[in-house]
C-alpha cells in the first residue's frame, strides 16, 4: 500500500538589491515572520516554528524539512495553535538566533515571487532574498523590472534560513 506523497520543495533563490515594496505595481501581500529553529536528533532534518503576522493576526506553523539533493527537500508543514507554538519554543536550539523578516508575495509573469527583507539577526539586517518555487524544469527567469538581482544563490547553504540563523556574517 502506498502512503500519502510527501511534497518536495524545489526553489531557486537570489540576492536582490535594496527593495522598496511600495514600488510593486501589482497586488501583493505582506507579512511579518518570526522563525525559530528547534533541536533535532537527525542532522539531515530541520525543524522550525514560525509565527506569521499580518493585519488579521497571527498564524503559527510547525515545519520539518529534509534535504534530498541540492535545492530539493521534502517539506511537511502544519498550522498549529498559539499554545502548541509556545510549547514547541521550549525545544528551541539556543545556538541559533531568531530570524525576523518581512515577506512580500506577488505574481508576475505567471510566477509566484516571495521577497524576504531580513531584520534579524542583526548581522543580516537589510539582506533581501527572493525565492521562486520551481515546478518541473527550471524556467528562464524573467525578473520584474522593479527588481535588481545581485546573484543566484540557489543551493548555496550560506543563504538558507537555518544558516542565516547562525548569526555568522556572509562573506
From TrEMBL:
SUPFAM superfamilies to which the protein is assigned, alphabetical: CYTH-like phosphatases (SSF55154)
UniProt-listed InterPro entries: CYTH-like_dom_sf, NeuTTM/CthTTM-like, TRPL-trafficking_regulator
Organism domain of life: Bacteria
Molecular function per GO: GTP binding; phosphatidic acid binding; phosphatidylinositol binding
Residues the record marks as active site: 37
Protein name, entry field: CYTH domain-containing protein
Organism annotation: Candidatus Taylorbacteria bacterium RIFCSPLOWO2_02_FULL_46_40
Lineage: Bacteria, Candidatus Tayloriibacteriota
Amino acid at each position: 500500500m502506498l502512503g500519502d506523497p510527501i511534497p518536495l520543495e524545489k526553489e531557486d533563490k537570489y540576492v536582490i538589491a535594496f527593495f522598496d515594496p511600495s514600488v510593486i505595481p501589482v497586488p501583493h501581500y505582506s507579512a511579518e515572520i518570526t522563525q525559530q529553529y528547534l533541536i533535532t536528533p537527525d542532522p539531515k532534518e530541520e525543524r522550525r516554528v514560525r509565527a506569521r503576522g499580518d493585519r488579521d493576526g497571527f498564524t503559527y506553523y510547525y515545519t520539518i524539512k529534509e534535504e534530498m539533493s541540492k535545492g530539493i527537500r521534502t517539506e511537511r508543514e502544519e498550522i498549529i495553535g498559539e499554545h502548541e507554538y509556545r510549547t514547541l519554543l521550549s525545544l528551541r536550539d539556543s545556538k541559533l538566533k531568531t530570524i525576523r523578516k518581512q515577506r512580500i508575495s506577488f505574481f508576475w509573469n505567471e510566477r509566484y515571487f516571495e521577497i524576504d527583507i531580513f531584520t534579524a539577526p542583526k548581522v543580516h539586517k537589510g539582506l533581501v532574498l527572493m525565492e521562486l518555487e520551481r515546478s518541473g524544469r527550471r524556467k528562464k527567469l524573467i525578473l520584474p523590472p522593479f527588481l535588481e538581482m545581485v546573484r543566484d544563490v540557489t543551493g548555496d547553504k550560506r543563504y538558507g534560513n537555518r544558516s542565516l540563523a547562525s548569526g555568522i556574517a556572509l562573506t
